[in-house]
Amino acid sequence: MGIVISLEPHRIKKEWKEEKRLLQDLDVQEVKSTAEKVFTPVFHRFQFPYTFLEEACVDLALESFLSGGKYSRYVEGRALPFTFQVQAAAAVGEIAGELYEFMQCWVEDDPGCYLKEMKEAVDSFIVYWWKRGLETGVRRQPLDYRKR
């Protein structure tokens, strides 16, 4: 009779270590200032800093950053293979969709806000942080290989 060992705890621990390393290169103040620059022009009657909107933007930018960092392990010759590009686009679209839906719920009262403009801002914000995560992950890879 064999023993069954679950590898899930080991996978989770490895994932946490990877995320922790990635987050060492992230400045939350930079995320906040980027969000303010991107979204303040879209929401004309809304003060951005220290609001629930800022919190949602930071949370989803972090999620996007970590997603990009995780895809960095698949980069070959400075490019992401097509299969992973498709998967990454789906992941980015899901994160952007979540932020857009969140914003859309309360922005209905702002007559100066156009949904198309807001969608473009959300997409560019999430893609920006995903690419930053990918770049950070790629930049950290040589350091990781030296430790093995």
From TrEMBL:
It holds the Pfam family DUF2521. This is DUF2521 family protein.
